[in-house]
Structure formats: C-alpha cells, structure tokens
C-alpha cells in the first residue's frame, strides 16, 4: 500500500508511458527489418539518420516560434550526451537479436527486464543525480516476475518448439 501523502500518478503520464512502449516495440521491429536487409550497423545509421533529420526539422519549427528573451538555460552535464552512444548500441543489439530465435517478443521481454534492473540500481545508488531510494521486497518481486515472464515468452512462446 502507498502512504497517504504519496503523489498519485497522472493518468495522462501512465498513458504516455504505455504509448511509448508501443512505439518502442514498433521501433525494434522496424530496426530488425532494416538489420535483416543491411546489418546492424546499417540499421543504426538508418534509425539515427532519420532521427537527426526529424530533430532538425522539429528544432527549426521551435526556433521560429520561440519568443526572443534574454533567458539563458543551464548546460546539460557532459554525461547526458552519452544517450546517443547507448541509443546506437541499443539499435544495433536489438536489430541483431530480433532476427534470432529470441524474435521480437523475447528481445523486448529481456530488454524491459534489463531496463527495470538498471532503473532499480539507479534508484538504489542515485545514479545520474537521482534521489536515492531504498528498494524493498516489492521491487525484488517485480524483477522476479519480469524475469519469469521473459523466460516463459522465450522458452514456451509461439514457435519456441520450431
């Protein structure tokens, strides 16, 4: 049970997170298709090249709409730029594994389990300036259920006996 003073999640935020999971699935599938035709490096270049063009267009639109103010923003820490490196590695790894017997479901199941484990470590030790959070039995149970679910998908999913 949550404490009475704990903030309740915004339904729009829950919907946005759920939608991002759907987009992630579509992205991994499309990267896997590109990887099956041109390899993992091609898949990564294609995804990031498309993202770069989209970002340039998006920034151009925002730049034209931005009011002129003397406001300056704080610079991002140097480690924040490593997101591109991990993104490129993620695209290459997923576009490779989705074309193996793991398939799309197995790749995503293990990927999500890895995300949860890393995010719990980030909460526990306060990585990247996050506030430290003491992990409990509920967190361990969630990880265990995700790992078991991943194994069920991989070992007993559709086409597993093929």
Automatic annotation (TrEMBL):
Q: Which GO terms describe its cellular component?
A: plasma membrane
Cite the InterPro entries for this sequence.
YdcZ (IPR006750)
The residues that cross the membrane are 12-30, 42-64, 76-96, 102-121, 142-160
According to the entry, what is the taxonomic lineage of the organism?
Bacteria, Pseudomonadati, Pseudomonadota, Alphaproteobacteria, Hyphomicrobiales
- Please report the name of this protein according to its UniProt entry: Membrane protein
Keyword terms: Membrane, Transmembrane, Transmembrane helix
């Amino acid at each position: 049970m949550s404490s009475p003073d704990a903030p309740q999640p915004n339904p729009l935020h829950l919907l946005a997170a759920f939608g991002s999971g759907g987009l992630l699935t579509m992205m991994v599938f499309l990267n896997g298709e590109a990887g099956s035709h041109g390899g993992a490096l091609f898949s990564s270049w294609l995804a990031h090249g498309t993202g770069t063009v989209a970002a340039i267009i998006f920034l151009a639109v925002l730049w034209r709409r931005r009011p002129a103010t003397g406001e300056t923003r704080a610079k991002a820490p140097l480690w924040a730029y490593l997101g591109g490196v991990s993104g490129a590695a993620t695209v290459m790894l997923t576009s490779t594994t989705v074309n193996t017997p793991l398939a799309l479901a197995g790749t995503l199941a293990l990927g999500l389990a890895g995300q949860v484990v890393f995010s719990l470590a980030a909460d526990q030790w306060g990585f990247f300036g996050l506030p430290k959070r003491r992990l409990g039995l509920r967190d361990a149970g969630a990880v265990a259920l995700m790992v078991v679910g991943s194994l069920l998908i991989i070992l007993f999913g559709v086409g597993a006996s093929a």
